[in-house]
Design brief:
Layout (H helix, E strand, L loop, with lengths): L5 E5 L7 H10 L4 E7 L18 E7 L2 E6 L3 H12 L6 E8 L11 H11 L4 E6 L12 H14 L5 E7 L7 E4 L5 E4 L2 E4 L10 E4 L2 E4 L8 H6 L2 E8 L15
């Protein structure tokens, strides 16, 4: 009897987050599932790792076809630990999320959700990151289930090109208009630091909190992830590990 596909799941919202619970329930319909996720929120962890501290892991749940572990490290730590110290075989698919908050445009560089998928991709494991454009901690994920299941099935059946992962983002809607395969939009975060003036800090010391607003530099470009979400579509963006600006190599060849 052929083995069921093995699916690894992680996130950056923590092992108890609703998004990862919903994603786990969906993936259990496609294969055997191992969840290795942080023991608490690790938002904006990007590809951060923990080289100076020991990483602990604890089994929270085990039943036929499903094991759930919490890890003291980052999302990337979780994937490294799963692939190199926990699983007895390489997974057929790694999925990350479902993140509470979208990861579009330049935000993918900060995202722990995408960071976990990138780590799997570096190890030649097909990977998908899923995110929802809302910070609400309790959401209805049913409008996105069909796209999640179809993309996961596609990757299980066909794989992905080497060094490429899928970054899938959803708008907060009751019904999707469809899907768009699109590129990262150009944008930047602005007004990111807010000074704290509540008097809790020593004299001579200033304190700031991270905040900010996203500035979309291509509002009218209909081929971007931000346009897709703003117009009710799920955005599916292929992301590559190779960050080389190939078109610039010849320009600076004589530098």
């Amino acid at each position: 009897m052929p083995k069921r596909p093995l699916i690894l799941i992680s996130n950056d919202d923590g092992v108890q987050a609703q998004g990862i619970r919903e994603l786990t329930a969906m993936m259990c319909r496609l294969g055997d599932v191992v969840v290795v996720a942080p023991d608490g929120p690790r938002s904006a962890a990007s590809c951060c790792i923990s080289p100076l501290t020991a990483i602990t892991i604890k089994l929270l749940k085990e039943q036929e076809g499903l094991s759930v572990y919490q890890c003291s490290g980052t999302p990337t730590d979780c994937v490294k630990l799963a692939l190199d110290g926990l699983l007895t075989r390489m997974p057929d698919l790694m999925v990350s999320g479902i993140n509470h908050g979208d990861n579009t445009s330049v935000s993918i560089h900060y995202s722990g959700t995408v960071g976990a998928a990138l780590e799997a991709c570096m190890k030649s494991v097909p990977a998908i990151a899923y995110s929802l454009r809302t910070r609400k901690q309790e959401c209805d994920f049913h409008p996105y289930e069909e796209v999640i299941m179809s993309t996961a099935r596609y990757v299980l059946e066909h794989g992905l090109p080497q060094d490429v992962l899928l970054n899938v983002n959803f708008p907060l809607v009751e019904e999707l208009k469809g899907t768009r395969v699109c590129r990262m939009g150009r944008g930047r975060w602005i007004k990111e630091m807010l000074e704290v003036t509540d008097g809790r800090y020593p004299e001579g010391e200033r304190a700031f909190r991270l905040t900010g607003f996203f500035l979309d530099l291509e509002k009218n470009a209909e081929d971007t992830d931000n346009w897709a979400l703003a117009n009710g579509f799920a955005a599916i963006t292929p992301i590559g590990l190779d960050m080389t600006a190939h078109g610039v190599i010849n320009i600076i060849d004589n530098i």
